[in-house]
Each structure stands twice: as structure tokens, then as C-alpha cells.
Automatic annotation (TrEMBL):
Domain of life: Bacteria
Record-linked CDD domains: AdoMet_MTases
Pfam families: Methyltransf_31
InterPro entries found in the cross-reference section: Methyltranfer_dom (IPR025714), SAM-dependent_MTases_sf (IPR029063)
Domain Methyltransferase: 51-149
Official protein name in the record: Methyltransferase domain-containing protein
Length: 223
């Protein structure tokens, strides 16, 4: 199956699961987020001291609202209409735009920080999106990516598509989206190809397992 076919499956899954996802996030049903990863991404953004943030793949908008609570101006972008509607219902600046449109230079506003919080699921579309990031970052701007830690995925340690699952989620979810696994070296090569330079890496620890719950890459535009 082509990468674009997997991308279509990802969009279809999120369209079908927009409502249960919104409920799960707002009701605190995702343990790793409540205990580790939400706070980790907020801290990473705050450490960058941005005035203007773009949350790409914002979902139901929690991060935009959390940043507003600490006086950081943020705008959320997502390609799923239902998620954007749910985000707007609680207030904030949210724009409906797919990654495909973004990759075609669909975003014109400069930002100090571009954030991807578990939203980079595809293969070629991720490369297309990251190549645009240097064009929208202000001088000394940063790109911050939180994703699954490559070293702690129970699969062969090689790049490739993986089947999604909703293990640990409620029965309201269906048809989990596929996602593309990258090794650590593949992530670093992708950043380099996108004119992005790694300046910091964080590994938020899950207190129950004493293993990383995620990895956070902090990047700047190559000089």
C-alpha cells in the first residue's frame, strides 16, 4: 500500500474517533498524558519563551488552552473538522487545515514555536511538513516534537508502518489509525534533510515503569 493510502486511513480513523478522543482527553482518561506527557510538552514550550506558538495537529485544542493559561499566545491547526469544532467550542484560535495543505505553503504567519504533540504519524507527509517549518519560524524560533520513544516500541527496530490499536481506551473507539515508526537515526536524518538542527532531547519518565513515556525533540533552523 502506498504512503498516501496510509495517510487516508489516518484521516479516516480520526474523523470517526473525533468525539471519543475529545471525551478521553477532557475527562483525563489517558494515564500517560495526565501523569507525564502533557506537562512535559508544556514545559518544553515554556522553556523556549515564545510569544506566538502554532500547534500542528492540535486535536481538540487542549494545548492551546493550556498555553493561554500561562500567557502564551497560541493557535491550533488540524485537518479534522469535528476536532476543530470541538476545540473552538471552548474558545481559542483554531484553524482547519490539513498537513497536505500546510506542506503546500498553506501557512503564512510567522511563529516563534511550532509544536507537534504526538501528531506526526505518517511517512512522506511528515517529511513534507517538516521541510516547511523553517519557512514559518521567526529568528531563533524552535520546533518541538513529542512522539513515542523509538527505543521503547515492542516491534522490530526498523522503519516501517505499524498497525494502530486502542488498547487501554474505551470501547467507543474504532478502527485505529496506522502510524509510521522511525528509528532514532531516521528521525535525526529527517531533521537534517528539513534544515532543522537538534539542540535538545528530553525523555519524560513514566513513574510506573521507570521508562521513557515519550521523547521530545527540540530543534532550530540550521544556520
Amino acid at each position: 500500500m502506498k504512503s498516501s493510502d496510509y495517510d487516508s486511513e489516518i484521516l479516516s480513523s480520526w474523523q470517526k474517533n473525533a468525539e471519543p478522543w475529545t471525551c478521553a482527553v477532557r475527562d483525563g482518561e489517558i494515564y500517560s498524558r495526565v501523569t507525564v506527557t502533557d506537562a512535559a510538552i508544556i514545559k518544553a514550550v515554556m522553556d523556549a519563551s515564545p510569544k506566538r506558538v502554532l500547534d500542528l495537529g492540535c486535536g481538540e485544542g487542549w494545548l492551546v488552552r493550556a498555553l493561554a493559561d500561562v500567557n502564551i499566545d497560541a493557535v491550533g491547526m488540524d485537518g479534522i473538522p469535528a476536532l476543530i469544532d470541538n476545540a473552538r467550542a471552548l474558545g481559542g484560535d483554531f484553524r482547519q487545515m490539513s498537513f497536505q495543505a500546510f506542506a503546500m505553503n498553506g501557512w503564512s504567519d510567522e511563529v516563534d514555536c511550532a509544536v507537534f504533540n504526538f501528531s506526526l504519524l505518517g511517512e512522506t507527509i511528515v517529511a513534507d511538513v517538516l521541510r516547511v517549518i523553517p519557512l514559518i519560524l521567526s529568528t531563533n524560533g524552535q520546533c518541538i516534537i513529542q512522539t513515542l520513544h523509538p527505543a521503547y516500541v515492542a516491534e522490530p527496530y526498523i522503519d516501517g508502518w505499524r498497525e494502530g490499536c486502542w488498547s487501554g481506551f474505551s470501547e467507543r473507539f474504532s478502527e485505529a489509525a496506522p502510524w509510521y515508526f522511525r528509528t532514532l537515526s531516521s528521525w535525526l536524518s529527517l531533521f537534517s534533510d528539513s534544515r532543522l538542527q537538534l539542540i535538545a532531547m528530553h525523555e519524560p519518565i513514566n513513574p510506573e515503569t521507570a521508562k521513557p513515556a515519550s521523547v521530545i525533540f527540540v530543534l532550530k533552523v540550521k544556520s
